[in-house]
Amino acid sequence: MMENQWLSHAKRLQAIASTGLHFCKDEFDRERYQEVADIAQAMLADLANVPIIRIKGLVSEFAKGYATPKVDVRGALIEDGKILLVRERSDGLWTLPGGFADIGRSASENVVRETHEEAGLRVSATRLYSIRHKAKQPYDPDARDFYKLFFLCERQDEIAPQAGVETSEVGFFPPDKLPDLSRGRVIESDIHAAFAFSNGDQQFATFD
Description:
Shape: elongated
Structural class: alpha+beta
Number of strands: 8
Mean pLDDT: 87
Number of helices: 5
């Protein structure tokens, strides 16, 4: 199930306003783009039931360039029929290690860094198994727009996993006994796809 249609419209209006404010020089048009931005932010705040100031804070690059989706990367490490998950301190729920892709690193390098920071393990990202548009899947609604990249990983050391600054627990779980997931970050189908790809049941990365 994709995100609410009005949420999608509001995010699109916000992106148009952001791009317009960056490139437009005419003051009359800038006023109109700002009005569109204010309306879009009010819509997003109403839909999320949060203050407008919080919505504004989510878009750190507003009116600073062409508006594009953010990139979120996640790593799947499977050992002995179980997958590595980390528990987020922010919400107490579980997810694949990962987060925002940092500028200056490739997507796979970001996965390696995030897995080390969140689970204490050194891994290599071996294969891309899924690219998803967050708005088109049943993740928790988000005022921001994301492309999510999922990689299979292999361990590069034998160190026991340990939580990092942003995580409180680390563990391996079988696919039929997953803990409560942080559904803004990962959903069950992301994990099941990792097992299918790892087992050879799925040969090519999914794009949805």
